[in-house]
Design brief:
One of its GO terms (molecular function) is GTP binding. Keywords: Cell membrane, Cytoplasm, GTP-binding, Hydrolase, Membrane, Nucleotide-binding, Receptor. This protein is of the alpha/beta class. The chain contains 14 helices and eight strands. It is 63% helix and 9% strand. It starts with a helix and ends in a 5-residue tail after the last helix.
Length: 434
């Protein structure tokens, strides 16, 4: 019972006693009424007590449930955290991979931007030093083949005689100089020995180097580009020699020389040739004129000439088919393209360059001979020099065919195609790093 009720009840009893003293007749009724009230109060107290006990039990049960829940959470949370850690770890690895790719792309783009800015600021052709180093490295297999063969022969003889000449001749043929070129070199060597009275076999090595260098440097080195007007370059070559990539690299090279370049995708016969060329022109940052696969190649060249005139292009490079197995059709196609160039672009200087794979060695010379039958070839692009020991063929190509090497490639990068420098090539060929 609350304190208020007890106080209230006490005051009420005192009043009843006073009333009983004044009105004795009403005493029994008052007692009965009071008894009922007291009984009600007792019941009320019992109910309140039961409610309190019930609330206490409920509270204790809630506490127990809360403790159980906390224990359950303690058991579950580590598992969840472990799973989340694994997921976060996996996600982190994926994020790192993505970031690494993005970083590499950003680095490549930054390098390209830096190179372009450096070229713009200097307003000059990029330095040759880096390319000469790559040339020296790229000719390592050819150099080892030539020098090792010559050194092995010279170290085996104490006197210069016919047998020594025969061994040297074999070493040069093995380095893919070709039979005709080797015989020419040996003839010059014998004359030099006789003229200078050389008796020591070790003195033959610098003599050979001098003769081979002279053969390399006798090639004309004039630029294919017209200094006073536009230039049209027809590029021919069999499939697989690197014709498409050479066009892309050549476009990049001309662009570094501040020339406006346009490319015509006139090899409409070979599957995917147009798509491949489109990729390379995008890399070089030059425009391309193309039709659907199977279109008339001459029509592509006609549209390209119109575009070159309207856009005032300095160089128009035309990719052409390399169907050497069907020389008649190839000849007709090249003749038709040549007539269109002569009629529509008479002011342009015309060059026909054949792309040759250096790894084919003497077969490269044979390809040039066959293409010369269907086209007036003015120069050679020699690719893949870094992957062969047959670089000696470059000496024999001009010696036997009188077709000069205009460009050489010693790598996969877009700037790995450069104008042929005979002196630098000779130095790299004989281990004289520039």
């Amino acid at each position: 019972m609350s304190l208020f009720k007890r106080l209230f009840g006490k005051n009420k009893n005192q009043e009843e006693k006073e009333q009983e003293a004044l009105n004795p007749g009403q005493n029994s009724e008052s007692l009965t009424s009071r008894s009922e009230e007291q009984a009600n109060e007792v019941v009320l107290e019992e109910v309140e007590s039961e409610d309190i006990e019930t609330e206490t039990d409920d509270f204790e049960e809630l506490n127990i449930q809360e403790e159980d829940r906390l224990k359950s959470d303690e058991e579950i949370i580590p598992t969840i955290e472990a799973e989340e850690h694994v997921q976060v770890t996996e996600n982190s690895e994926e994020v790192e991979q993505v970031l690494e790719v993005e970083k590499n792309l950003e680095t490549e783009l930054e390098e390209d931007v830096i190179d372009e800015k450096a070229t713009e600021v200097t307003n000059e052709v990029p330095e040759k030093k880096g390319f000469i180093k790559r040339l020296f490295s790229g000719l390592s297999k050819t150099r080892d083949s030539i020098l090792k063969g010559v050194d092995d022969v010279l170290s085996s003889f104490k006197h210069i005689d016919e047998e020594l000449y025969e061994e040297l001749e074999e070493a040069l043929i093995m380095a893919d100089f070709g039979v005709d070129t080797t015989l020419h070199i040996m003839e010059k060597l014998k004359g030099k020995v006789k003229e200078e009275k050389i008796t020591d076999p070790s003195a033959l090595k610098p003599a050979l180097q001098e003769i081979i260098t002279s053969l390399l440097t006798q090639q004309p080195t004039d630029d294919i580009l017209n200094p006073n007007g536009p230039t049209v370059v027809l590029v021919i070559g069999v499939n697989g020699v690197g014709k498409t990539t050479s066009i892309g690299k050549m476009s990049h090279l001309f662009k570094t020389q501040h020339k406006k370049v346009l490319v015509a995708a006139a090899d409409t016969f070979r599957a995917a040739a147009i798509e491949q060329l489109n990729v390379w022109t995008n890399r070089a940052g030059v425009e391309i004129i193309k039709h659907d696969e199977g279109s008339d190649a001459a029509a592509v060249v006609f549209d390209a000439i119109s575009a070159a005139k309207s856009r005032k292009s300095d160089v128009l490079i035309c990719d052409t088919a390399g169907r050497l197995q069907n020389k008649t059709n190839l000849m007709k196609e090249l003749e038709k393209i040549s007539r269109i160039i002569a009629r529509e672009y008479p002011e342009a200087k015309k060059e026909i360059l054949i792309v040759i794979d250096a790894t084919t060695g003497q077969n490269a010379i044979q390809q040039v001979k066959l293409f010369k039958e269907v086209a007036d070839i003015s120069g050679i692009i020699l690719t893949k020099l870094d992957g062969t020991a047959k670089g000696g063929a470059i000496v024999g190509i001009y010696e036997s065919l009188k077709v000069p090497v205009k460009y050489i490639g010693v790598g996969e990068k877009i700037d790995d195609l450069q104008p042929f420098d005979a002196e630098a090539f000779a130095k790299a060929l004989f281990a004289e790093e520039a």
